[in-house]
Amino acid sequence: MLKMMTATLDELITIQQQLIRYAERKQTVLIEHKIDELTELVKEETRLIRRLGQLEDERESLVTEVLEEHPGLSFSEFTEQVPDEAARRALQEQLTTLKQLLLELQAKNRQNEKLVQDSVDFIQGMIGHITTPVKQPYNYPPKSGAAPKQSTNRGFFDTKA
């Protein structure tokens, strides 16, 4: 069972590393506004996340089995009591690595989320700028003796050609 646990953790680590690489590529793609490439990255990332979910389910069932075989112990306590020194160290290193990778992935995802939010804010600002009602007419002001024409305060897209 310990070998199954280490194999599952190894695969989880590999997928986390791939997700980090994808997050880095997404950052570049977001900065360069390559939408098609971003779409492909998101598809691949979704596939990896599904596999990650399956592995996480496997890991949870293995942990449950371990805790049923060793009642009264938490998983951390179990890892400290693994009789084989090399296996114990390897398991603890895997768990530490997995935690570090998770933190790194979360940080990269936060950066990417900020980039996306900045892009959305920019687009909304541009749309607002284009559709905001115009306070001044586009042509010359009326002659001094004529009554001023009422402005309809139309936006850029609401004007007639």
Provide a descriptive summary of the structure in words:
The protein is mostly helical. The protein has one domain (2-140, 151-155): Methane Monooxygenase Hydroxylase, Chain G, domain 1 (Up-down Bundle), CATH 1.20.58. The chain is built from four helices and no strands.
Order of helices and strands: HHHH
Query: How does the major sheet shape up?
Result: none
CATH class type? Mainly Alpha
Shape: rod-shaped
Strand content is under 5%
- Number-wise, the strands total 0
What Rg, in angstroms, do the CA atoms define?
Answer: 29 Å
CATH topology: Methane Monooxygenase Hydroxylase, Chain G, domain 1
Keywords: Bacterial flagellum biogenesis, Cell projection, Cilium, Coiled coil, Flagellum
Pfam families: FlgN
Region (Disordered): 134-161
Organism: Planococcus maritimus
Essential attributes:
161 residues; Methane Monooxygenase Hydroxylase, Chain G, domain 1; 4 helices; 74% helix; FlgN-like; flagellum; FlgN-like_sf; cell projection; Flagellar protein FlgN
